[in-house]
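Exam revision sheet. Question 4 asks you to relate a sequence to its structure. Input first:
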Amino acid sequence: MTTAVAKAGSKSERAYEHILKRITDGRYTPGYRLVLGQLAKELDVSVVPVREAIRRLEAEGLVTFEHNVGAQVAMVHEAEYLTTMQTLSILEGAATALAAPFISSEDIARARAINARMIETLDHFDPVRFTDLNRQFHSVLFERCPNSHLLELVHRGWARLRMLRESTFSFVPGRAHGSVEEHEQLLRLIESGAPSLEIELAARHHRTATMDAYLEHHA
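Answer key, C-alpha cells:
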C-alpha cells in the first residue's frame, strides 16, 4: 500500500469515526443533514474521504441519501425501537432484581446523586445530557447483577438503543419528570429490601412507561 493510499484511508476512517460518534451520542439527530463541505472543513480534509465515510455509514443503515436532499442521518425505525425497548424492559427488570441484594448504601447514594443532576436539567432541558445521566443511573443498579450472561444481554440492549440514536426524551420531554420520580421509587424499594419480584416489576414498568409515552406521542 502506498503512502498516499494509506493517508487517504486514514482520513476516511477519521471522518467515519467523527460522524459515527456524533450520531451515536445524539448530537446528529435523525434527519440531520450531513453537508460534505462543512464536514470536510471541520476535519480539515477534502470532501473525498468524507464522501467515502458517508457511503460506509449509508451501507450500515445509519445514513440515507435522497435526491435533492443529500445525505442525512437515518430516521429511527419505530418497530425496531419498540422491540428493543420491550426486550430491554424484561432483561433489565430481571437484572435489577437480581442485583438488589448486592447494591450497597454507597451505590444508592451515587444513584441518588445522578438522579439529582437529572432533576437539575429539567428547567433547561437537554435531552442528550438527560439520556446520558439516565444510562449512568441505571448502570449503578444493574451492574451488580451476579448473572454475567444476563448482564451481557442488558449491555447489548443499551448498545442497541444507542445505535438506534433514540432519546425518547427528545420527542417526549414531559416524560423526564415522571422518569426521575420513578427512579426515586425504585431506590426506595431496593433500600427497604422489597421482594425481588416487586423490584423487577417496578424496573420493568419504568422502562415500558417510557415506551408508552413514545407511542402516545406518535399516535
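Marking note for examiners. The chain has two domains: 3-73, 78-218.
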